[in-house]
Amino acid sequence: MDQMKIGRFIAERRKQCGYTQMQLAEKLHITDRAVSKWETGRSMPDSTIMPELCKLLGITLNDLFNGEVVIMEDYKKKSEELIIEMTRQKEAADKKLLSLEIVIGILAMLAPFCMIILASFVTMPDWLRICLIIVGFVPCIIGIMYALKIEQTAGYYECAECGHRYVPSFRSVLFAPHFGRTRRMTCPKCHQKSWQKKVINK
User: Fold this and answer.
1) Last residue of a domain, which of 40, 70, 100?
2) For residue range 62-80, what is the model confidence (pLDDT) as tens digits?
3) 95 in Cβ contact with 200 (< 8 Å)
4) If you average pLDDT over every residue of the chain, what do you get?
């Protein structure tokens, strides 16, 4: 989706309908600053108000996402192009998230390691040494849990038995035996347990 194009389209339709930014904002129960951000391409309307926005501007959701009024003859083609573009954007975002997961995982493991080194080589009371080690494990646990959440939601897991691709529950990912991003889980479709690989696209 081209946010700049969508923003220009919203501004154009707003003016055609005779609304100021303030008037449109009041009808949607938001601030005129939010409308300004849409029109300059800095943000997109929230999904909860998109239907009402389209109704006020006399357009369809498909028109909004394409940043232009879609003629019925081109509707199917434009819809397919939009789906492909949204899929491409999701895949790119998932790849970035999975790269971030690696960074978070490394930093999480470094925290207790650094504290253990510090506690081992610096002279201090035993109680302080124990506290340092405990403190080191707190960000480690938080970081690992956050990294697991990213792994769970970014992309999909592919069942080795039936090929079904799905997003598992966080609990399934947390307790599944694994090596790297391959985890032994039960497929929700065929109900078979297998080593399932992480994939980006569905």
Assistant:
1) 70
2) 888 888 887 766 666 777 7
3) yes
4) 88
In a domain, 171, yes or no: yes
Buried/exposed code over 124-145 (b: 16+ C-beta within 10 A; e: otherwise):
eeeeebeebeeebeeebeebee
Domain extent, residue 162, equals: 155-202
Of the candidates 67, 49, 189, the residue with the CA atom closest to the CA atom of residue 59: 67
pLDDT of residue 201: 80
In which residue ranges of the chain is pLDDT below 50?
none
Among 70, 88, 114, which residue terminates a domain? 70
